[in-house]
Amino acid sequence: MMLQLLPLAAFTLQPTPAVQMPVRDPRNWPEPVMDKIAPPLPPLRKGAVLVLSKTNGFRDPEQIAAAKIVLTDLARKQGHDVFETENAAVVNRRDLTKFGVIVLNSTSGTIFNDAQREAFRTWIEQGGGVVLLHGAGGDPKYEWNWYPETLIGAQFIGHTGRPKQFQQAAIDVVDRRHPATRDLPARWVRTEEWYSFDRVPAGQRTRILATLDEQTYEPFPERVRMGKLHPLIWTRCIGRGRMFFSALGHKAETYAEPLHQRMIAGAIRWAAQSRGSGC
């Protein structure tokens, strides 16, 4: 009996197809840049507002652009000079003396070097007011522990995900005596990407202003569930300074909402120490 010889190709091992890793859109994940040279400042009156929109992590270009316009307009309507930039080197001991308020417009990633971190921390502790909006408190981890532990008071752990990323839910405004929340309804229903945190912030004279009712939407995935007390908006006292944080504001169109604008305007007034009891 003659054995039939099979073609050599029948025994050739085929290469394993390469695993295709998801490609990050550079519009949403720009190449990180650490700024070293501060931008030139125009003449600014005392108590000016700095709007910083630096992103070295996730970035939503439409949201950043829309918020810049609204934040600048709200601050100017209160009589403040405003300087808007994406250059984090403006955060230095010399230039920060020009400002009474810093608004972090969904900043993300590591944006400050060691000298800038020290200047930022010292400026706040000595009486500066900072307003953190949405992504400014939405990094899954931070290289600078002081930022989530002391300034914000909680670590972001996630938000509602696809296909249920944006859902309508009810916010309970539990403290309407604050300038940022006094014009809000006690029950504020809106659509958002809902943030969750590893704890309810405490200490540093924390003041919870608004919480999320988890019974009014589906916390998805399950790990973003916090339970009965799910804070979304709060303030803290940092030395002689003030910190206001709001987890709201993912989509660009939210900055056109009258109630959202009133909340931000009140936060800037409070951070500037022109309204409210202070820290």
TrEMBL record:
<dbReference type="InterPro" id="IPR029010">
    <property type="entry name" value="ThuA-like"/>
</dbReference>
<feature type="domain" description="ThuA-like">
    <location>
        <begin position="49"/>
        <end position="271"/>
    </location>
</feature>
<dbReference type="Pfam" id="PF06283">
    <property type="entry name" value="ThuA"/>
</dbReference>
<protein>
    <recommendedName>
        <fullName>ThuA-like domain-containing protein</fullName>
    </recommendedName>
</protein>
<dbReference type="InterPro" id="IPR029062">
    <property type="entry name" value="Class_I_gatase-like"/>
</dbReference>
